[in-house]
Amino acid sequence: MDTTQLLKGVLDVAVLAVIEQEDGYGYDVVRRLRAAGLDDIAEASVYGTLRRLFHSGLLTSYVVASDAGPHRKYYGLNDVGRAQLADSAATWKQFVKTMNVVLTKESAA
Amino acid sequence: MDTTQLLKGVLDVAVLAVIEQEDGYGYDVVRRLRAAGLDDIAEASVYGTLRRLFHSGLLTSYVVASDAGPHRKYYGLNDVGRAQLADSAATWKQFVKTMNVVLTKESAA
DNA sequence: CACACTACTCTGCTAAACGCAGTAGTGTGC
DNA sequence: GCACACTACTGCGTTTAGCAGAGTAGTGTG
User: Fold this and answer.
1) Using a CB-CB distance cutoff of 8 angstroms, which residues of chain A are in contact with residue B105?
2) Is the pLDDT of residue B45 over 60?
3) Does B91 contact A at CB distance below 8 Å?
4) Among candidates A24, A11, A72, A97, which has minimal Cα distance to B38?
5) Rounded to a whole number, what is the distance in angstroms from the first to the last CA of chain A?
6) In a designed cystine with B5, which of A2, A8, A102, B99 is the match (CB 3.0 to 4.6 A)?
7) A17-68: per-residue pLDDT in tens?
8) What domains can you pick out in chain A, each with its CATH number?
9) A16 touches A77 (CB < 8 A)
């Protein structure tokens, strides 16, 4: 099965969670997500998500010069972002529970 | 948060699981999924998923006359479907674990 | 015979992840 | 001193899949 479809709607939460830990820029968020186990995540997806979240008003943004490459566009959570994260994480957990009900009923052997 | 996006890729597994329990027809699968907690699932999504899974060769299909309405198109799992279900369920569980890592690292306070 | 419930189909819309290409900045090796 | 690798970001077009909404029937009830 392709995990691409599973990511839908979840990448938002994942990115928010990673940034809450510590402010991050795109390239770095990609690495942190991959390190956490989302191995085959695409760069374009993360950059796209960051832009979407920022334009939705959930993130702050500031640019920092780098000593090893181009400048970095850092993102951080604001209050709206933190609230959204809490909310989405709760929705996710509830969803997982529901799916567990659906899946464990299977062949009640 | 909208659960629509969370369903992506997961509805397949959910439908397969429900059908493995017992053969079912569209209208009935919808009710069983809703009963399990996927309240706001749309009929069109389930019928679409059933057709997709059938055409992918995971389901068998047979028509039964009903005593209370039009005929019913029942679906059942074949071996390919059962294998796919096992596989997808495993992928899902792994994905949930990964997401748990991502989410619980959050604010390691 | 109108209406409700069952049961299914079809068309078109939309969100979001991704592939791919392109643009730069920096540092390393030949 | 130039090719190449790595860092860092942007933009466009494609694809997948869930959903809204409308339509078509069959059955049974007031």
Assistant:
1) 17-18, 21, 36
2) yes
3) yes
4) A97
5) 25
6) A8
7) 999 999 999 999 999 999 999 998 999 999 999 999 999 999 999 999 877 7
8) 3-104 (1.10.10.10)
9) yes
Residue-wise DSSP of B23-47:
-EEHHHHHHHHHHHT-TT--HHHHH
The per-residue pLDDT for range A46-56, each reduced to its tens digit, is: 999 999 999 99
Q: pLDDT digit string (tens) for A89-100?
A: 999 999 999 999
Q: Answer for A49: CB within 7 Å of strand C.
A: yes
Written as one string, the DSSP assignment of A18-29 is: HHHHS-EEHHHH
Question: C-alpha distances in angstroms, A106 versus A53, A109, B31?
Answer: 37, 8, 16
Q: How far is A46 from chain B (nearest CA, A)?
A: 14
Q: Which two tokens stand for residue B96?
A: 């949930």
A108 to B21: CB separation less than 8 angstroms, yes or no? yes
8 Å CB contact of A92 and B9:
no
Q: Greatest CA separation found in chain B?
A: 60
As a whole number of Å, the CA-based R_g of chain A is 16
A9 touching B, CB under 8 A? Answer: yes
What is the percentage of chain B residues whose pLDDT exceeds 70?
Answer: 95
